[in-house]
Automatic annotation (TrEMBL):
This is 5-hydroxytryptamine receptor 3C isoform X1. The chain crosses the membrane at residues 312-335, 347-368, 374-399, 495-517. GO terms for molecular function: extracellular ligand-gated monoatomic ion channel activity; transmembrane signaling receptor activity. The gene is LOC108879771. Belongs to the ligand-gated ion channel (TC 1.A.9) family. Keywords: Cell membrane, Disulfide bond, Glycoprotein, Ion channel, Ion transport, Ligand-gated ion channel, Membrane, Postsynaptic cell membrane, Receptor, Signal, Synapse, Transmembrane, Transmembrane helix, Transport.
Length: 530
């Protein structure tokens, strides 16, 4: 029977024995597969490994026989091309593992307008719950004059899309995918305090999870309005808010939730922050509230950022120089009033304080309800120095008045002395010659009277000499002893100096105590260190 069957096969194959090999190979493979199926688990990969190891050992043996062969060479393992029936291994060559197949399954390319136009809910009365988280990455600028707060923030939004869901096991374990933002619906969340449109590039992709949860991350440079309270500048503490809400959706359509509490969001911001400008970040609080704009309620999340100014630079560049100018004004009391140097010095110092006030005017906003303490500090010092300048002018006026009185008295004495000297200079012989010219007949009578008056003239000459000696003595005493107005000016100057020092001390103590109270309230605060 066997030879007969063999001949029959030869006739069927045309007498070519090589055609029998595929049939024999198939029979052997079927037997092998049949034997594998009978094994527990039916895993054929366990039989492929010994064959690979045998081939590798043969190859290594051949490498050892070669001159200079490197025994460390190994054959690469079979990875992506290897097929397996193990449940932990995915069919990587399957078409279900590609993103194209996944997008076709979701119909995102064809129905992108349907996915992006309306809220992704099964029923229009279902509220879309929007989860929000914000982290401050940097404080870029705080402009007191414009009352603007410029932070760089990270925003995380997530919501549920009822129209997108899939089983990850049907797509090789694919649990999430990144799709362009224009393909999906996005909430119209806006920052209420924003005054300028963000110039950064928006996020081009969003993440879609298998359970329908959509995640959107974005970075923003926000130029927002913030009311600055600069009463205690430069030891002030500012609180700026960023309020997130929908533009058109009411609270029945979108409801906002804050993902984390205030302490956690403060900790995350401290860890992420890279720069704080001239400020020290204290904390950030998050609250949720409902507002009523245009006669319908809207859900809102409000983040309040609290920070304190770094005051060291303002102390060195502004407060101390003004205090030094005040010290120079106090030192000017040691300058003499005789010349004009004291007056010109005080005017120069007063102009320097005026320049500092102009610089301060460029920093502080004009819309502040209360006058800042630093403005009171500058105005108070300016007023004290102005009063000191007026006192100097008054004292110099009194001293000048005393000098004018002494000058008038000296002039009167000189006039009397000149008259007496002129009368004493006329001798009897000169009077006699004059009398002879007018009337020679009355010579005897005139000479009699002249002899009588000559004794009086001699007495007047003695009186003049006495007056001259008394005047010289009086002038010496006056040079040694100041006048009445000069003595009064010196007394006024001493009293004013004591009053001036007292008022300056009380004023500075009051201003610095108010600044110290503010500083003390901030000492127990914890700041973010960079």
């Amino acid at each position: 029977m066997i030879p007969t069957g063999f001949l029959f096969l030869l006739l069927l194959t045309g007498g070519n024995p090589s055609s029998l090999e595929p049939l024999e190979f198939l029979d052997a493979q079927q037997k092998s597969n049949h034997s594998f199926e009978e094994l527990p688990g039916g895993n054929t990969s366990s039989f492929e490994v010994p064959e690979l190891l045998d081939d590798q050992q043969k190859s290594n043996h051949s490498f050892e026989e070669m001159p200079g062969g490197n025994t460390s060479l190994e054959l690469p393992e079979l990875r992506y091309g290897q097929q397996s029936n193990d449940k932990d291994d995915w069919p990587w060559n399957s078409e279900n593992c590609s993103y194209h197949h996944f997008l076709n399954y979701l119909n995102l390319s064809e129905n992108k307008n349907l996915y992006s136009m309306l809220r992704p809910v099964r029923h229009h009365k279902i509220t879309t719950e929007l989860y929000l988280k914000m982290v401050i990455y940097a404080i870029l600028d705080v402009r007191e004059k414009d009352q603007a707060f410029v932070p760089y923030i990270w925003i995380y939004l997530s919501w549920h899309n009822h129209h997108i869901q899939w089983d990850p096991t049907e797509f090789c374990g694919l649990e999430s995918v990144e799709v362009p933002t224009e393909l999906m619906w996005k909430p119209d969340i806006n920052i209420e305090e924003m005054t300028e449109r963000d110039k950064t590039t928006p996020a081009p992709f969003m993440t879609v999870n298998y359970d329908g949860m959509v995640e959107l991350r974005n970075d923003l440079v926000v130029v927002s309005t913030c009311r600055m309270r600069v009463y205690q500048f430069p030891f002030d503490k500012q609180s700026c808010t960023l309020s997130f809400k929908s533009v058109i959706y009411s609270d029945e359509e979108i409801w906002l939730y804050a993902i984390t509490n205030s302490s956690k969001i403060t900790e995350w911001s401290c860890q992420a922050m890279r720069t704080q400008y001239e400020w020290l970040f204290i904390n950030m609080t998050v609250t949720r509230k409902t507002v009523n704009y245009f006669n319908f309620n809207q859900s809102m999340i409000v983040y309040t950022i609290t920070m304190r100014r770094r005051s060291a630079l303002y102390i060195i560049n502004f407060i101390l120089p003004v205090l030094f100018f005040l010290g120079l004004d106090l030192a000017s009391f040691l300058i003499s009033h005789s010349g004009g140097e004291k007056l010109s010095f005080k005017v120069t110092v007063l102009l320097a304080v005026t320049v500092m006030q102009l610089i301060l005017n460029e920093i502080l906003p004009a819309s502040s309800n209360r006058i800042p303490l630093i403005a009171i500090y500058c105005i108070g010092i300016f007023a004290l120095m102005l009063v000191s300048l007026l006192e100097t002018i008054f004292v110099m006026y009194l001293m000048k008045k005393d000098n004018e009185t002494d000058r008038d008295q000296a002039l009167n004495v000189r006039k009397h002395a000149c008259c007496a000297f002129c009368c004493a200079a006329e001798t009897p012989s000169q009077v006699l010659s004059v009398a002879e010219e007018h009337n020679s007949g009355q010579l005897t009578v005139v000479s009699h009277y002249l002899e009588k008056d000559s004794d009086e003239l001699r007495q007047m000459e003695k009186t003049q000499t006495l007056i001259s000696s008394n005047n010289s003595t009086t002038s010496r005493n006056e040079e040694e002893k100041p006048g009445y107005w000069t003595r009064m000016a010196k007394k006024i100057n001493k009293v004013f100096f004591i009053f001036y020092v007292t008022v300056v001390s009380v004023f500075l103590f009051s201003v610095f105590s108010m600044w110290n109270i503010t500083e003390a309230t901030g000492k127990n605060k914890k700041y973010c260190s960079i």
